[in-house]
Amino acid sequence: PNRTTRMAPSVPKKKRKVNLPENEEVAARIFDKSRSIASQQPGGLPEHQARALSAAYSGVCTAKEPVRTAGDLARLKGVGGWVVDVMKDCFPGSSLDLSPPRSNTPGETG
């Protein structure tokens, strides 16, 4: 395989097309979050964080299922715990329960 060494982008450079309209908002939040984190750090994002956010962003853009919770985000290929931690406040009322909710009644399990 042809390997070229290149720097990871500090943030996703430009917006990508999002496969599912339902995921537009999540993709935009990851895009904006990566920019805001990068702007708060003197040298921009560390490479591993930039790569993690970039992978999460492209994962959401190419997802074939809606990403509605932090758990949905965690299931995407290339998305690790750090990204889920950083992004979990973007999902209203979500917990890290990785199973889809079966009921809207609090305290009830499906």
From TrEMBL:
Entry's localization field: Nucleus
Signal peptide: none
One CC-aspect GO term: nucleus
Keywords (A to Z) from UniProt: DNA damage, DNA recombination, DNA repair, Endonuclease, Hydrolase, Magnesium, Metal-binding, Nuclease, Nucleus
Enzyme Commission code(s) on record: 3.1.22.-
Cofactor dependence: Mg(2+)
GO molecular function, one term: DNA binding
Chief location: nucleus
InterPro entries with a match to the protein in the record: Mus81
Region (Disordered): 1-20
Biological processes per GO annotation: DNA catabolic process; double-strand break repair via break-induced replication; mitotic intra-S DNA damage checkpoint signaling; resolution of meiotic recombination intermediates
UniProt record similarity statement: Belongs to the XPF family.
Subunit structure: Interacts with EME1.
PANTHER family for the chain: CLASS II CROSSOVER JUNCTION ENDONUCLEASE MUS81 (PTHR13451), CROSSOVER JUNCTION ENDONUCLEASE MUS81 (PTHR13451:SF0)
Function: Interacts with EME1 to form a DNA structure-specific endonuclease with substrate preference for branched DNA structures with a 5'-end at the branch nick. Typical substrates include 3'-flap structures, D-loops, replication forks and nicked Holliday junctions. May be required in mitosis for the processing of stalled or collapsed replication fork intermediates. May be required in meiosis for the repair of meiosis-specific double strand breaks subsequent to single-end invasion (SEI).
Name by which UniProt lists this protein: Crossover junction endonuclease MUS81
Top-level taxonomy: Eukaryota, Viridiplantae, Streptophyta, Embryophyta, Tracheophyta
